[in-house]
């Protein structure tokens, strides 16, 4: 399995493509990229995270960087700490939604945002240069910070759009599936602060994932059953590094990962002056976002997939809300990173103030059906495959080539793109009905061969 290097950082299978030597090379390059300043370091709770944290920390210290070690925390907590501490950068040791045998590194700049395209290119240039280690009296200092996750929660709960009193009044009963990773250190505690009765599921932070980590409906059967069995008001699931958030209704049915950002957009725009809100999402996100934005006279822009692509555009145009349809809410009121903690605060506030059940809340949003699949890409010229499909269909649909190719039809759309994080080509379709979305999925999987 090849090392995956992209705008989303670097990740691979531990002991195969991701080895201690690779980790040292990237840590040393990032130390030089950051000018030898303070680096915030955290990890998502994977079993391999602790030894990699030791390797990365030692490398950074040997390069003359100070290290502020947060331990097991959400990736957005690391970004927020970089920004508030005035650090030179940050590293999150995570492979996000990839399985347990994977790990990786996400690189954060001094703004608290991930490195963008040019910044990643500069890091790759430095990677080819030999490290320049500090002398014995020039090594960095290592300090621990065990309160970063609580500060993150406090920042969310103190934002004017988050309504702790309204949430406490509803006294929600919530099943929280934290996949035995970083969510376990923050999500249950945050919910209890909000007066919720919490039923923990996979919250032991052991790093042994109890389910496939991507929080898709097919991986959340146990959560759906737990919601029904316990008579809960809703279920919450996060991925290992807590930047993706999905909900389950009181009926034990998926709210839909695409509808996490849609719900956040609905709430934030509803609290903004009419016509003043701007929204940014990626090309693979549901059309429901445009429909919701139209309710409030707001504009929507779309970017290539990749958190920094969305966040960078949001910052450039002053967007009030945005994110990615995979369950990633970016709320600039806290910071410009996908953040499940911020998403929980916003969406529970919306739900509490409306008085609706989770299923009624979902029914109030525009109805689309999205389907996703993929094909393995090892040994294939995926760019040529995608371009061949684009050439055949260029006269029958509006096409966008900013990220692979997206075909927009009157009654739906299809997006074909190479993944930033796995050796696959993703096929995403959306239509008004499940049958239509499935038909598009089958057609384009056949088109790609």
Name a few traits of the molecule.
about 450 residues, alpha/beta, five-stranded antiparallel β-sheet, 15 helices, 20 strands, about 35% helix
Structure explained in plain terms:
By secondary structure, the protein is of the alpha/beta class. It is 37% helix and 22% strand. The chain has 15 helices and 20 strands. The strands form four sheets. It has a seven-stranded mixed beta sheet with strand order 1-2-6-5-3-4-7, with helices on both faces. Strand 8, helix 7 and strand 9 form a beta-alpha-beta unit. The radius of gyration is 21 Å and the shape is globular. The mean pLDDT is 94.
Question: What's the arrangement of secondary structure elements?
Answer:
Blueprint: E1 4-6, E2 9-13, H1 20-33, E3 39-43, H2 49-62, E4 67-72, H3 75-85, E5 89-93, E6 102-108, H4 117-127, E7 142-144, H5 148-157, H6 164-170, E8 173-177, H7 187-193, E9 197-201, H8 221-230, E10 234-238, E11 245-248, H9 258-270, E12 278-282, H10 288-295, E13 299-303, H11 307-317, E14 321-324, E15 328-330, H12 340-354, H13 358-363, E16 369-376, H14 382-393, E17 398-400, E18 405-409, E19 412-418, E20 424-431, H15 434-448
Parallel strand pairs: 3-4, 3-5, 4-7, 8-9, 8-10, 12-13, 12-14
Antiparallel strand pairs: 1-2, 2-6, 5-6, 10-11, 14-15, 16-20, 17-18, 18-19, 19-20
């Amino acid at each position: 399995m090849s090392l995956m290097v992209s705008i989303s950082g670097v990740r691979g299978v531990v002991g195969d493509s991701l080895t201690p030597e690779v980790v040292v090379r990237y840590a040393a390059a990032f130390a030089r990229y950051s000018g030898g300043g303070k680096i915030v370091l955290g990890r998502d709770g994977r079993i391999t995270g602790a030894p990699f944290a030791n390797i990365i920390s030692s490398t950074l210290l040997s390069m003359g960087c100070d290290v502020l070690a947060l331990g097991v925390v959400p990736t957005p907590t690391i970004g927020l700490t970089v920004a508030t501490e005035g650090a030179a950068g940050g590293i999150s040791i995570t492979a996000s939604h990839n399985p347990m045998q994977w790990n990786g590194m996400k690189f954060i700049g001094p703004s608290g945002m991930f490195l963008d395209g040019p910044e990643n290119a500069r890091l790759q240039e430095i990677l080819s240069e030999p490290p320049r280690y500090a002398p014995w009296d020039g090594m960095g200092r290592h300090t621990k910070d065990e309160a970063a996750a609580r500060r993150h929660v406090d920042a969310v709960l103190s934002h004017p759009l988050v309504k702790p009193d309204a949430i406490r009044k509803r006294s929600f009963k919530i099943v929280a599936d934290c996949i035995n990773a970083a969510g376990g250190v923050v999500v249950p505690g945050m919910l209890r602060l909000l007066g919720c009765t919490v039923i923990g599921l996979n919250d032991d932070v052991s790093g042994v994932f109890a389910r496939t980590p991507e929080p898709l409906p097919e991986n959340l059967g146990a959560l759906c059953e737990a919601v029904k069995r316990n008579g809960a008001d809703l279920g919450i699931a996060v991925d290992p590094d807590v930047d993706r958030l999905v909900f389950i209704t009181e009926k034990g049915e998926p709210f839909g990962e695409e509808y996490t950002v849609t719900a956040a957009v609905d709430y934030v725009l509803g609290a903004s002056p009419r016509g003043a809100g701007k929204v940014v999402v990626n090309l693979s996100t549901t059309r429901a976002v445009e429909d919701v934005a139209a309710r409030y006279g707001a504009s929507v822009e779309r970017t290539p997939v990749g958190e920094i692509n969305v966040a960078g555009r949001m910052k450039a145009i002053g967007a009030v809300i945005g994110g990615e349809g995979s369950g990633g809410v970016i709320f600039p009121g806290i910071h410009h990173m996908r953040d499940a903690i911020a998403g929980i605060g916003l969406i529970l506030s919306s739900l509490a103030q409306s008085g609706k059940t989770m299923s009624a809340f979902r029914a109030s949003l525009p109805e689309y059906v999205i389907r996703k699949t993929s094909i393995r890409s090892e040994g294939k010229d995926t760019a040529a495959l995608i371009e061949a499909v684009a050439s055949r269909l260029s006269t029958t649909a509006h096409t966008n080539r900013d990220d692979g190719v997206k075909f927009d039809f009157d009654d739906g759309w299809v997006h074909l793109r190479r993944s930033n994080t796995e050796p696959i080509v993703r096929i995403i379709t959306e239509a008004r009905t499940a049958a239509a979305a499935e038909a598009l999925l089958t057609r384009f999987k056949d088109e790609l061969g």
